[in-house]
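Hey,
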Amino acid sequence: MHRFIWISVIFLVGCATLDRHENAQQIALSGALIPSSIKANGFVLTSYSRLQDLNQPINVYIEGDGLAWLSRHQASPDPTPKQAMALSLAALDPAKNVVYLARPCQFNDFNQTPCDSAYWTKLRYSEKVIDAMNQTLEAFVSKANHQPVNLIGYSGGAAVAVLLAARRHDIASIRTVAGNLDHAYVNQIHQVDLMPESLNAIDVSASISGVPQIHYVGIDDKVIPKQLALRFMAQQKNSRCAVMREVKADHQLGWVAQWPTLLHQSLPC
């Protein structure tokens, strides 16, 4: 039987012995982002942030699925990404208020806080996971005087961003990067098991049709084809608030170099 698709952020840099935690710390340091841990819904979530003006909006970056699988048939013992793509993008963001949110179990100390692999495989977008992400987001929104939030999600983090937006009223915009906006469709394409216990971003697409959105898709992306963004936007009944932009990139390469330019593209509506 097929297993769940291996849609991990396997963005290798340096040698094979790269320390994933140290690498994230170095990326965060380059963007003056400060680490913190927040307990939420049974998880301890890792974040990095830079809050400099509490009267301005917050740009919130959400990590992808990370190293969820070692192969199509073997789950990883630790979903921490080889290189945190969303963190790399966040470090380049010059906004006054920038927050990076890792996903449950990523950057986790498994000796102190056990974490079930189901939460980075079949339950990666489950109600418990999304609720934990929402609680963590709310902690930062409270710190920032409840300013509007701009969500940026990479790969599986795009699904989380959309699911968060659907349950909040303070989202000013959404940007997805190589976003998994319909995991059922992606898993069908790659002929792997579905995830019926996970929420699906496309199911709430219509409810966020009034939120300005840019969905960036990689021209050379073999993991997440542009059909996902098109299917997602089709559910919004031709909303003027959502656009798709094609970028010369694959699922991992090309985004960091182009992000400063992409970030400054104007939002629709």
